[in-house]
Amino acid sequence: MKTPKPLDINITENLPTNEASFDLIANALETVGYAIIADCLPIALSLALSERIILISSECKRAGVGRGQTHLIDDLIRSDGIHWLQTGNLVETAYLKWMEQLRLGLNRRLFLGLFDYESHFAVYETGGGYHKHLDAFQGTSNRLLSTVFYLNPHWLPEHCGELLIHGPIGDILLETIPPDFGTMVIFQSAVFPHEVAITQHKRYSIAGWFRGRGA
Q1: Within a domain: residue 32?
Q2: What is the layout of strands, in order, in the sheet containing 173-177?
Q3: Domains contained in the chain, number
Q4: Which domain holds residue 145?
Q5: What is the pLDDT of residues 147-182, one digit of tens each?
Q6: pLDDT at residue 79, as a whole number
Q7: What is each CA distance from 62 to 50, 59, 122, in whole angstroms?
Q8: Which pLDDT score is estimated for 2?
Q9: Separation CA 144–CA 191 (nearest Å)
């Protein structure tokens, strides 16, 4: 893949949307509770995000599990490094703007009451993974929809590192999703337990959450 070029300011200000993709995502969320969409974002933005995560990967901080007094860092549970997206960077701002358009699009179609969005880059080194878990904090409605966007060109089956989505009841594996470049996965945060299988290659993604009001 050619070296990504910096995202043009005009693309940042006037990001093209794909209403057909919004329709597909909304239909999948309504019928099965999750959506898997290939080539979801404009290619210029995907390439710029790929360049960005490589550039800042050394600055990523170790992620933990839980929150408040229960927050801890445990490599046996989760081993990714993270960097929260902010509006101070052109490329990160472009992604957040596109996800804002998706938020509005899903609210128009499904009346979900999605209020805001937060996200971070996630970098898994070889041998890293994340045990089975739910994204929504217990007893709250803080996270309504989880999103994952993959930034791994030329990912091979032997690299592993798949996202495993489990059913809400029992231990039924519903989907095994390779972290292929340009693929976005969206699912109900409080419904679907999921995990990141041990990766055999450095793995890049953006994890995010659409939240309800008062989260």
Answers
A1: no
A2: 130-133, 194-196, 163-166, 173-177
A3: 1
A4: 37-212
A5: 999 999 999 999 999 999 999 988 899 999 999 999
A6: 77
A7: 20, 10, 10
A8: 46
A9: 9
